[in-house]
């Protein structure tokens, strides 16, 4: 079975990836959660959801995974974590899909990837703690940007982010304009 790696850390915004991970369930992909913390330590999301990651970042074998998903939150405390940045860089250099939403692209910046791709994020130059890692010249004022093997999105655009990641993983057809319409409009079914 193919695997998608979901990187979770204290403060990650679970709502930004909830639809995506729901749609992965029932696909040909298994979701594997990993964290930068020691084995057996729970991770607490922005909404205070506590989860027990499957593996630590040090246990990740990139060859076992087709994609890496990085939710937003406040990843500032991880910008200098070489275990995190090395895994991200390995996925990028191996041309594996990376999806990062909201503040997640800051970790792409810490790994040096934002020097090579156009991107978007819910970060601005007012977020001064991220200034050293963000390549603002490559940031686009768009809701969703796909460049090379990297999909980035603003946090409130989580449905379109999920759709694009699902397209890139070939779970939904590339030409399907709105595969997650169910989540966009209330229905009686």
List the helices and strands and how they pair.
Layout: E1 2-7, H1 18-24, E2 29-35, E3 43-44, E4 50-51, E5 55-56, E6 67-70, H2 82-93, E7 97-101, H3 105-110, E8 144-147, E9 150-153, H4 158-168, H5 181-184
Low-confidence sequence ranges: none
Derived structural class: alpha/beta
Q: What is Rg?
A: 15 Å
Main pleated sheet: 7 strands, mixed
Helical residue percent band = 10-25%
State the total count of DSSP E strands: 9
In DSSP terms (H or I, runs of 4 or more residues), the helix count works out at: 5
Mean pLDDT: 95
* Percent of residues in β-strands: 15-25%
Order of helices and strands: EHEEEEEHEHEEHH
From the spread of the alpha carbons, the general shape counts as: globular
Adjacency order of strands in the biggest sheet? 5-2-1-6-7-9-8
- Separation of the first and last Cα atoms: 31 Å
Brief account:
This protein is of the alpha/beta class and 189 residues long. β3 and β4 form a beta hairpin.
């Amino acid at each position: 079975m193919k695997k998608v790696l979901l990187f979770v850390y204290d403060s990650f915004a679970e709502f930004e990836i909830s639809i995506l991970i729901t749609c992965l369930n029932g696909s040909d992909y298994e979701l594997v959660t990993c964290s930068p913390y020691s084995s057996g330590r729970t991770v607490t999301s922005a909404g205070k959801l506590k989860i027990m990651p499957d593996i630590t970042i040090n246990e990740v074998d990139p060859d076992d995974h087709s994609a890496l998903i990085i939710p937003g939150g406040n990843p500032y405390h991880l910008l200098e974590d070489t275990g995190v940045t090395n895994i991200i860089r390995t996925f990028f250099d191996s041309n594996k899909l990376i999806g990062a939403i909201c503040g997640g692209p800051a970790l792409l910046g810490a790994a040096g990837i934002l020097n090579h791709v156009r991107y978007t994020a819910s970060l601005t130059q007012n977020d001064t703690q991220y200034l050293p890692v963000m390549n603002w010249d490559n940031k686009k004022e768009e809701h969703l940007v796909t460049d090379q093997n990297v999909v980035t999105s603003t946090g409130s655009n989580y449905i379109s982010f999920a759709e694009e990641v699902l397209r890139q993983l070939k779970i939904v057809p590339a030409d399907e304009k709105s595969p997650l319409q169910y989540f966009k409009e209330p229905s009686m079914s």
